[in-house]
Structure formats: C-alpha cells, structure tokens
C-alpha cells in the first residue's frame, strides 16, 4: 500500500496557531480536541483546499449519497501511515452531516420549517492534513501520495512561516433571543407527556433555538468560545459566504478504528457550581439520580440496537455505564457501547444504521423524531447532526453536534435541549436547556456593542 509523507512541525497544544494559516481558505476545517484544557481527546485535524466537495443534492437518497462518498474515497486511493507513526487520518473525507440528513434515511413528516437553508451534508475530499497528537506531543503535516509535489511544497512553506495575526473583528448586534417562550415550551412539554402516557414513546429529546444577528469573522467567535468551554469533540468548518459551523461538542457519536466501534452517549446533566462543596454535591446527585440513570439506559439500549445492524452478532458490549464527565458549565452522565464491525460492512454502513444519534432523538427513535418534527417549529439544521472524518483506510471518528452554533446569513443560531421522560418536570427541563448553552451565549454576548 502507498505510504503518506509526513513532515514534523513544532508541537502546539492549541491548534489555533496552525489553523490561522488556513482559516479563511476554501473548505477550511478544524476538528479540535480542546487541548490543553480538555483531556479526553487525542488528535487535532486541520485541512483546507479540498480536491472535491460533496454535498447531498435535493433528490438524492441517503444510500446514493453515501455511495458517492465511497467513490470519492476510492478516487483518492488507499494510503497508509509510515511505520511507527500513528495517524488517525491518511487522507479522505472531513465535514458535516446535518440532523436533517436523517430524513433521507427514514420517512418523516414535513412540518418543521427549514428557515436556515443549510444543506443536509457537506464533506470535502482532502489529500493533506495538519495533525497534532497530544498523547505523543507531535504536530505533523500529512501528505497523501496523490497530492501534487508543488502543492506539498506550498503547504510546507505556508506552515513553516506562520506569523501570528491579530483577531479579525467580530461583534454581536443584539443579545440572543429564544424562539420559544416559557408558555410555548410548557405546551410542547405537555404534548410530549401525553404521547408518553399514551404509549407512543418513552423519551423525546426536545430542543429550543436561540438567535442573534452578528457581523464579522466567525473564527474569532470560535476562539472565544473555545477559551470559555474547551471540549474534546469541538470543531470549526468554514462554509461559503463567510458562514461557518462552530461546535463545542463534548459527545462522541461513532468511532471506528481497526474494525472496533465505539459510541459514547450523554444522557443526564447537572449545572456546575462555583462553590466546590456544592459542585461535588451536584455531581453526586447526578450519579445517584434514578431518573437520569433510567434515561441514560434507554439510550444505551437504543444504541445497542443501532450498532447491532452493522456489528458482528454477539460483539456489542456496554463496557462503561453511568460514568461522570465534567465540563466548565455542566456535569454529564456518559456510557459507552462498543462492537466489532461485521464483515462486508464499512463506516458508511455504520452511519446509515445509526444516524442521527439516539441520545439526541429519544426512544423509540423514529417515533421520537416524528414528534420532534411536530413540536419543534423549525428544522434543526446542523444541531444534533455530526462533524466527522473518514479516511481512505476506513478509520472514522465523529461527534454529536450539540453545544453548536451555525453562523449563516448574518445570524448566529444555537440550540439547547434535553430528554423528556415520564417523570420529567417541565420547569427543570426548561432550565436544563438554558444551562447547557448559557456559557456559549454569555461568552458571545460580551461582543455586543
């Protein structure tokens, strides 16, 4: 198998320095593990100037689009990492799948209004990447063998002579406003409770949207958010017309490495407290909450079923159940579900059988998605979709795009939500949806005039 060429650069724990060289380039993308503050992620990936961009067309089915992604990978060609040089990515696809890509996989109603007009999927085919490995303390340029020698030389010169530039202007023109008031939220909550009592579903993940107008460079906004809330599955993807995806996600969706599959659903949240004693009490309350454990277990069971569609029979396991993960603004209850990919299946089969993630839909998944479409007035666009990479070897990692914003057409959109079950309290759920995004909204509101 052909081997990638790797060039070593000075190690940087924060990817902002290297990304500044390409942040305004076509197809610029950063998958960010949140180092040095966040500790769970290992790699940062940076790239730009894709060889091709693949977007889902209006009348294209999910399977047709996924097959085009396979063909794109095949066009680039196989390549391996050099011996003794672990690389998560050796060239391939990086980009997003919006939550509404799920409409191409399942039959759903068309009630929610698509007012943002974000495409259901946009992935670039990249023949190079700047990769930082925080376990080994390395930063390296990776070049796929298909990349032209002249382009390799240009990139070597670019990253070898980066000059730190001042942040570009960014300002919020108003504070964030919620699309739903408390009364509308409570009415939707009560409708979900009626569905649960009727036996339609066990859990529905209901979200509300917050919006504000902005001017300037979304990359400046991302850097401020990263400083305030570093997370292991963060990311930034430049879109046409100065639009961007800004994600501070703490949640892995699907990881595939050497045939081993892992998903890490988050279900269960408590706010952090400034007082250390109270903060520990909040964490302990979450760990001992029967409601939150039951909610988490529902999603674990759903994901065991989803992974079972693409994994070898009998290989699906739950090695971690109800673990505590803490972030600057919240404590979370997290579990892990693993499996071994079945023969004849690939990463895109895994996505087709599992997308969107069960932790942000509810159970049963399809009925929950139908209820979401009925009760959320607008489509989710990026929110609860996924940022991902998939390389030519079949290696993949992906996030659930929660704690994420879409900067588009002069408007920033942000969503907060949570799982509603039979014993949920509407006011507590409403407050949780605010708590999850409070640090994001307040950080950006410091840029208000």
Report on this structure.
The protein is α+β, with helices and mostly antiparallel strands. It has one domain (5-259, 341-446): Anthranilate synthase (4-Layer Sandwich), CATH 3.60.120. The protein has helices at 16-19, 62-76, 149-160, 182-197, 218-228, 276-288, 290-308, 347-354, 365-375, 426-445; strands at 5-9, 29-32, 43-47, 52-55, 92-97, 121-126, 128-133, 138-143, 170-172, 177-178, 203-216, 233-239, 243-249, 252-257, 260-263, 266-271, 317-326, 330-340, 362-363, 386-391, 396-399, 404-408, 411-420. Strands 1, 2, 3, 7, 8, 9, 10, 11, 12, 13, 19, 22 and 23 form a 13-stranded antiparallel beta sheet that branches. α5 packs across α10 (426-445). The model has no long low-confidence stretch (mean pLDDT 95). Residues 25-135 form the Anthranilate synthase component I N-terminal domain. Keywords: Aminotransferase, Transferase. It is an enzyme of class 2 (transferase).
């Amino acid at each position: 198998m052909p081997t990638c060429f790797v060039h070593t650069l000075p190690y940087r724990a924060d990817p902002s320095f290297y990304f500044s060289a390409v942040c305004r380039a076509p197809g610029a993308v950063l998958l960010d593990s949140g180092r040095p503050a966040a500790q769970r992620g290992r790699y940062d990936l940076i790239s730009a100037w894709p060889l091709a961009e693949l977007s889902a067309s209006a009348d294209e089915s999910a399977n047709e689009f996924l097959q085009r992604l396979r063909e794109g990978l095949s066009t680039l060609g196989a390549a391996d990492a050099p011996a003794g040089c672990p690389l998560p990515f050796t060239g391939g696809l990086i980009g997003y799948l919006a939550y509404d890509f799920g409409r191409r996989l399942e039959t759903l109603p068309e009630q929610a209004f698509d007012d943002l007009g974000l495409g259901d999927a946009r992935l670039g085919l990249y023949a190079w990447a700047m990769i930082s490995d925080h376990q080994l303390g390395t930063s390296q340029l990776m070049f796929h063998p298909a990349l032209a020698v002249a382009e390799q030389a240009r990139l070597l010169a670019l990253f070898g002579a980066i000059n730190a530039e001042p942040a570009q202007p960014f300002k919020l023109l108003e504070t964030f406003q919620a699309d739903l008031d408390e009364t509308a939220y409570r009415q939707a909550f009560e409708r979900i409770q009626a569905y649960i009592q009727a036996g339609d579903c066990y859990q529905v993940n209901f979200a509300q949207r917050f919006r504000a107008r902005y001017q300037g460079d979304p990359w400046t906004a991302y850097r401020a958010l990263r400083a305030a809330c570093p997370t292991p599955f963060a990311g930034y993807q430049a879109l046409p017309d100065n639009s961007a995806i800004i994600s501070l996600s703490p949640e892995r969706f699907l990881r595939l490495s050497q045939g081993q599959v892992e998903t890490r659903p988050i279900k269960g949240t408590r706010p952090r407290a400034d007082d250390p004693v109270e903060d520990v009490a909040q964490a302990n309350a979450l760990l001992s909450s029967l409601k939150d454990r039951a909610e988490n277990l529902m999603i674990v069971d759903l994901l065991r079923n989803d992974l079972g569609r693409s994994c070898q029979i009998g290989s699906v396991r739950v090695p971690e159940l109800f673990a505590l993960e803490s972030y600057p603004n919240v404590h979370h209850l997290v579990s892990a579900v693993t499996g071994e990919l079945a023969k004849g299946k690939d990463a895109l089969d895994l996505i087709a059988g599992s997308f969107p993630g069960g932790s942000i839909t509810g159970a049963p998944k399809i009925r929950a998605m139908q209820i979401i479409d009925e009760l959320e007035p607008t489509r989710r666009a990026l929110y609860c979709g996924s940022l991902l990479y998939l390389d030519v070897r079949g290696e993949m990692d992906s996030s659930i795009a929660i704690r994420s914003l879409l900067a588009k057409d002069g408007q920033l959109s942000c969503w907060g939500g949570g799982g509603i079950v039979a014993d949920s309290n509407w006011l507590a759920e409403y407050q949780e949806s605010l708590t999850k995004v409070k640090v994001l909204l307040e950080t950006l509101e410091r840029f208000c005039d």
